[in-house]
Amino acid sequence: MNSSDLPLPPPPPEGHPILTRRALRKNGVRVLDGGDQSDAVVALGVAGRVRMEGIHANFGRRMQLSDLEMEVALDAQVCIKIFLEGFVEASLNGVPMPMPQRSDQGRWQSSAIIVSHESGARLRRRARKGQYLDKMVIGLSRDWLRRFAETADAPENFGALIDGRPGFWHWRPNRKVEFLARQMFDIAARKPPFSNLLLESHTLAIVYEALAATFAADADAAALPANLTAAEQQRLYALVQYVDRHSVHDLAIPDMASELGASQATLQRLIRKAHHCSLNEFIRNHWLEEARQALLFSNSTISDIAFEAGYVHLSNFTAAFRKRFGYPPSSLRKQAAMGRG
Fold first, then answer.
1. pLDDT band for position 169 (50/70/90)?
2. 10-218 CATH, one of 2.60.120.10, 3.40.630.30, 1.10.10.10, 3.30.70.20
């Protein structure tokens, strides 16, 4: 069936926009697939937006009703792009954007990038009928970011965003970011009292998590272009994705090295260079951070969370957690319960 033969869906409720080819062209988008150029519907879904001084955010879920290939020129800015679930082919200036992956347990593993680009950067996307992508894009002005560069606790490498240098940084959204982003979809759909205030506060919290995960100077910070070559960055990202897709009980370093096409020694050197710790320490810290997020944003018991983090005995998990974060998991769970109450 040709896309022009598709029946129009019923008018959606407010906040559930219909996207047409004509609307795309009016917004400066080039439709590249040679399909119907009329007012045929190509996508629909829940969407929302946030507008603050120096920050704007667009988010939502788009269902593809027909094949669509498009390209758009972007303004100069810094963007945080979060992909929660789904898949489309997308690239920025020819660099593929990382799409979410499913773990062996079927859970979506989200992905994200921070990009700094000049005016005219080309965003290209191709999607097929039935594909979708839950995503959030947060734009940051450099003037807004510059306020934080002047503080004493601003990391030195944070200046890469302020100076306008092109950059492409991968970072891994934690459970808090996923929780906040999905809650924003719900807020935009329900529009509770003071919904704009909620959306603004969630947006700022996500911006903090993204910048801290990418530019903080501690061992958990993502590797920066100045530290790693482009090939090393891609391999590091693939390593993190591999860890995310596997249960701690099924993860084996020899299998990881084989799938990534690198020796165990190469992976050890990469982690030392990027995170200043051994590969085993990196993996252990990864699962302890997952446990910390689960304590805050899930209803799983502490014993179940400990097992998912690779600990058979709760006492060993408590000792490792306290050593890593400075407090026991029980106190964090109590803090989370008080916050929800």
1. confident
2. 2.60.120.10
